[in-house]
Amino acid sequence: MTVADLGAVLAIEAQAYSHPWTHGNFVDSLAAGHLAEVLEGDGGRIAGYFVAMEGVDELHLLNLTIAPAGQGSGLGSALLETVLAHARSRGLAQVWLEVRASNARARALYARRGFDEVGLRRGYYPGLRGREDAVLMRRVVAAPPPAPTRGPATATVAAAAKAAGRGGTDGVE
Ligand SMILES: CC(C)(COP(=O)(O)OP(=O)(O)OC[C@H]1O[C@@H](n2cnc3c(N)ncnc32)[C@H](O)[C@@H]1OP(=O)(O)O)[C@@H](O)C(=O)NCCC(=O)NCCS
Question: What structural domains and CATH numbers belong to the chain?
Answer without folding.
Answer: 3-142 (3.40.630.30), 145-173 (no CATH)
